[in-house]
Q: What sequence folds into this?
């Protein structure tokens, strides 16, 4: 969420790279909250149609393995310069070449990444946690907020 004092919009909900583009155009804008400062994990993920996955299991395995290796690479503090260089190249190739190194560093800080062990830990439902995972807790809180604001009309349990 962003705010600009004295100008419209006074608040907004943006994600990278729009956050950085907006802040460049509105220098007084400030980040009001992020997944990190709310302690609300922003889980990434890959999606594939079930039919396609069944027809292409080896491709699915390779893409998932590459994704997880990429997360591990990005979490390695010793590789930060390489991560920023690769990210910069990708943004330039994709047309979002207005980002600077500080934007890319902030993005890595504000949006924590989770390797496979961390993801499984967040999704773990067991006797010790009453069969309610950390992800369940986060998404139930988000669902309550969205419901209270009238954004959604139905609520579901995570197991549904």
A:
């Amino acid at each position: 969420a962003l705010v600009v004092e004295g100008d419209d919009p006074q608040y907004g909900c943006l994600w990278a790279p729009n956050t950085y583009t907006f802040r460049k155009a509105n220098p007084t804008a400030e980040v009001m909250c992020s997944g990190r400062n709310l302690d609300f994990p922003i889980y990434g993920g890959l999606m594939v149609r079930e039919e396609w996955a069944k027809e292409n299991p080896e491709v699915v395995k390779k893409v998932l393995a590459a994704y997880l290796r990429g997360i591990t690479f990005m979490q390695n503090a010793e590789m930060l310069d390489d991560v920023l260089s690769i990210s910069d190249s990708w943004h330039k190739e994709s047309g979002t070449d207005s980002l600077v190194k500080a934007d890319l560093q902030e993005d890595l800080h504000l949006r924590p990444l989770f390797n496979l062990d961390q993801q499984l830990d967040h999704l773990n439902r067991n006797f010790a946690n009453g069969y309610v995972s950390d992800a369940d807790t986060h998404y139930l809180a988000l669902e309550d907020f969205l419901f209270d604001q009238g954004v959604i009309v139905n609520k579901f349990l995570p197991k549904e």
Notes: The mean pLDDT is 83.
